[in-house]
Specification:
Strand content: 5-15%
Oligomer: single chain
Helix content: 55-70%
Number of helices: 8
Shape: elongated
Number of domains: 3
Distance between the termini: 80 Å
Mean pLDDT: 76
Structural class: mainly alpha
Radius of gyration: 39 Å
Strand order of the largest sheet: 1-3-2
């Protein structure tokens, strides 16, 4: 035989109404105590009163309430209870993590007045943040500053293209002392012209021909006695290095520049950062 539930209050209509009034008053008192704790007035959350009210709510769940108005009052009370404990639990987690919105607002005002980006433990205590949560708050602020600094460094590094110099090919032997004539760049390919040229990623064939023409002009103006490397030699070196430049800078095109340094003509590739 099922044992009937026993209650420590009068289960008549008047008794249930009195219990609901008592629970409503406790809920309002509990809400005020939690707000005082969140503001730093109370040193600890009202756990004892919360457990007592939670016990009464569970006890009322076992009582069949036949009166419609009392049943409506009870459901409204439990719905408000669920909303409040959800808010309280979320706020308690923020306090433990040092990310409580009220503390953050105080810190922002303090940092704006001082022109700094951090808050020390002493400053947190001076702002009214309770000692039992000031340490977690300061640790959270320092971690956030470190994350922001790391993100800024990564963004700056990604926005700065890194030039990749193309090494000068080894000099080829030249016949006795004659100054080399400026050759016309030729592109061979097809069945009768030998193997097709090596395709260069990020660089069109027209750009390659123009760069090689300017390379030959710079080589002649520098007064070099050895002949300039052929287009196929430069193409082989570029075919190895351009893919590395594109991958390192996350781009799809390169720009070639010619520079004469210490009597040497060098070819440099720069990534083209697309907007």
């Amino acid at each position: 035989m099922k044992k009937e539930a026993t209650f420590n209050f009068d289960v008549s209509r008047e008794g249930i109404e009195a219990r609901l009034d008592e629970m409503g008053q406790k809920l309002e008192r509990l809400r005020g105590l939690y707000e005082s704790f969140f503001m730093g007035i109370e040193r600890s959350p009202p756990d004892v009163l919360r457990r007592e009210l939670n016990r009464q709510i569970l006890e009322m769940q076992q009582l069949p309430i036949s009166n419609a108005s009392l049943r409506f009052r009870y459901h409204a009370l439990t719905q408000r209870w669920v909303l409040l404990i959800t808010y309280w639990n979320r706020t308690l987690r923020e306090i433990e993590a040092g990310s409580f919105s009220r503390d953050l607002a105080k810190a922002k005002r303090r940092m704006a007045q001082k022109g700094t980006s951090t808050v020390s433990l002493a400053e947190a205590l001076a702002m009214g943040i309770p000692a039992n949560r000031a340490k977690a708050f300061v640790a959270h602020q320092q971690a956030a500053q470190e994350r922001n600094a790391a993100a800024t460094r990564a963004k700056d590094a990604a926005a700065t293209p890194t030039p990749a110099p193309i090494a000068e090919p080894p000099a080829l032997a030249e016949a006795a002392g004659a100054k080399p004539a400026l050759p016309v760049p030729q592109v061979t390919g097809g069945p009768s012209g030998g193997p097709p040229p090596i395709p260069l990623p990020g660089l069109s064939e027209a750009e390659m021909r123009d760069v090689y023409r300017r390379y030959l002009e710079a080589h002649q103006q520098a007064g070099k006695t050895e002949p300039a490397p052929s287009m196929s030699k430069l193409r082989e070196r570029l075919a190895k290095q351009i893919p590395l430049i594109l991958s390192a800078n996350n781009c799809s095109r390169v720009r070639l520049e010619i520079a004469a340094e210490d009597g040497k003509v060098r070819l440099r590739a720069w990534p083209v950062m697309e907007k």
